[in-house]
Design a protein that fits this description.
Blueprint: E1 2-6, H1 13-24, E2 28-30, H2 32-44, H3 52-58, H4 74-83, H5 87-101, E3 107-111, H6 114-118, E4 124-129, H7 132-145, H8 152-168, E5 181-184, H9 190-204
Parallel strand pairs: 1-3, 1-4, 2-3, 4-5
Helix pairs in contact: 1-9, 2-3, 2-4, 3-5, 7-8
Bound molecules: cytidine-5'-monophosphate.
Length: 205
């Protein structure tokens, strides 16, 4: 069974995907990390984020350390969002994702284009979203916990900019697959969102 979880930044899709993987005993891939690792690699190589070729070269990554806090930084996220619009970057990261999805026992993948491009054959597709203001205040709480002194307006502007880039790009834009179940978590807490996601996947089995 493949479970595809897509949605915009800070929608809760990562938390939901991890919980689904645990619940159904499946391996999980956070595909955003591939774009973030590419961005970090590019920055470390001193490459130019405006160059599609430089970004595509940076996409050839052997190992990703998911625990590296640098990968989660806003700076890396911003560059990841820009370079993910390049078709050459997406092509370089494609096989790794389709291979993960094709594991015999199944898998959970979360990102922006899992249900539409990476695994259109997925048995269960969720499109997780929440109002931009709600996503911004969740992200703000996360950043403040990490000791960052940022303001809601700043975070909200960043989320809106990222939404516009992710949905407006030509290559694999963020959109809900036709057969995806919409899960709006705006008025749910984490437990409610996880329970709703599990119920939605079970209904597809
Ligand atoms: O989900 P996360 O914020 O970690 O992703 C970082 C960036 O990578 C996103 O802003 C998005 O532009 C890009 N991305 C993508 N396709 C995916 C996953 C992430 O374009 N499947």
């Amino acid at each position: 069974m493949i479970i595809a979880v897509d949605g915009p930044a800070a929608s809760g899709k990562g938390t939901i995907a991890r919980a689904l993987a645990r619940h159904f005993g499946l391996p999980h891939l956070d595909t955003g990390l591939l774009y973030r690792a590419t961005a970090l690699n590019l920055l470390e190589m001193g490459g130019d984020p405006d160059s599609e070729f430089a970004a595509a070269r940076a996409a050839h990554i052997e190992q990703i350390d998911a625990d590296d806090p640098e990968l989660r930084s806003e700076a890396v996220g911003g560059v990841a969002s820009r370079i993910s619009a390049y078709p050459l970057v997406r092509a370089a990261l494609l096989e790794r994702q389709t291979r993960f999805a094709a594991q015999p026992g199944g898998a959970v993948l979360d990102g922006r284009d899992i249900g539409t491009v990476i695994a259109p054959q997925a048995e269960a597709k969720l499109f997780v979203t929440a109002r931009p203001e709600v996503r911004a205040s969740r992200r703000l709480a996360e950043l403040r916990r990490a000791g960052r002194n940022v303001h809601l307006a700043e975070v909200l502007a960043d989320i809106r900019a990222r939404d516009a880039r992710d949905t407006g790009r030509g290559a694999a834009p963020l959109r809900q697959a036709e057969d995806a179940i919409l899960l709006d978590t705006s008025d749910m807490d984490v437990e409610q969102a996880i329970a709703a996601a599990i119920a939605a996947v079970e209904a597809r089995l």
